[in-house]
Design goal:
Layout lengths: L11 E4 L4 H17 L3 E6 L11 H25 L5 E6 L3 H8 L5 E6 L13 H8 L4 E5 L11 E5 L7 H14 L2 E7 L6 H14 L3 H4 L5 E6 L3 H8 L5 E6 L12 H10 L4 E5 L3
Helix pairs in contact: 3-4, 8-9
Protein name: Universal stress protein
Family: Belongs to the universal stress protein A family.
Organism: Actinomadura geliboluensis
């Protein structure tokens, strides 16, 4: 049933698997849906639900009922958080990552939880969150276990800037979200090494050029600029300590390994950030 005035198109999709980090993703997704007046679609995907004759029919029915109960519990939790939003559920007999990617075709945002990993060594590959972030057709909100509740998040959104034309989609998304949250923007450009005062001036000017137009379009959003000597990955992870969100862009390109379309910087940020990360695919 649709709340009056709320659109049914372009929902906020949330991956639900019963884990603690999935519930934290639901916290953030419900907050986003409420502010942007979007419905929530809670999705649980599992290949175990496929009727392939490998388990008895009674066992399959019990399994389906169990997963439906999980989705029902998540729905009640979301409504307790934000009673005004419309919340629907969907049980999908398919690989969870592929189920979420398929839903992303018609979504405004997909939210997934992430266990994360300490340190900067040994990046993980093949997780549901990583696969979805690499292949979704809409922005993906990846919420780590260490993330605060939305109401307790700092009033700052960090956007990584490389100075490329295809960053306009991710930068525009960050400014729109900052305006809806009443947050400031930290535009971060990391060069990965020491540089002279002259080069700093040049980098500052180029960073300002990358933000041209956004100041006028979003006059109420305060903007801080930072040119860092850190590597991009480390600079973004460190900035996440005091941010509500880190926003990064993802270029669409073919690669021999699944998920590598994100690039090493985004991989590192997704695994080690202290706040949620939004991966925004570039425009086709």
């Amino acid at each position: 049933m649709t709340q009056e005035g709320w659109p049914m198109s372009s929902p906020i999709v949330v991956g639900i698997d019963g884990s603690a980090h999935a519930w934290r993703a639901l916290d953030w997704a419900a907050d986003y849906a409420d502010r942007h007046r979007r419905p929530l679609l809670l999705v649980h995907g599992s290949r175990a639900l496929l009727d392939e004759g490998t388990i008895p029919p009674d066992a399959l029915r019990r399994l389906i009922a169990e997963r439906e109960d999980l989705l029902g519990e998540a729905r009640q939790y979301a409504l307790k958080l934000r009673p005004e939003i419309n919340v629907e559920t969907r049980l999908v007999p398919a690989d969870p990552a592929r189920a979420l990617v398929e839903e992303s075709e018609h979504a405004d945002l997909v939210a997934v939880g992430s266990r994360g990993q300490g340190g900067f060594e040994g990046l993980l590959f093949g997780s549901v969150g990583l696969y979805v972030a690499a292949h979704a057709r809409c922005p993906v909100l990846v919420v780590p276990r260490a993330a605060p509740y939305p109401s307790g998040a700092p009033a700052e959104i960090v956007i990584g800037i490389e100075g490329l034309d295809d960053e306009r989609t991710s930068v525009g998304w960050a400014f729109k979200e900052a305006a809806s949250r009443g947050s400031r923007i930290l535009a971060l450009h990391a060069v990965g090494g020491e540089f002279s005062p002259r080069r700093r001036v040049i980098e500052d000017l180029e960073l300002s050029e990358s933000l041209a137009g956004y100041r006028e379009r979003y006059p109420d959003v305060a903007i801080d600029q930072l040119v860092s000597e850190r590597t991009p990955a480390r600079a973004l992870v460190e900035a996440s300590e005091n941010a509500a969100l880190v926003v990064v862009g993802a270029r669409r390109r073919r690669a021999p390994l699944a998920g590598m379309v994100l690039g090493r910087v985004n991989h590192t940020v997704l695994h080690h950030t202290r706040c949620p990360v939004v991966v925004v695919p570039d425009s086709d």
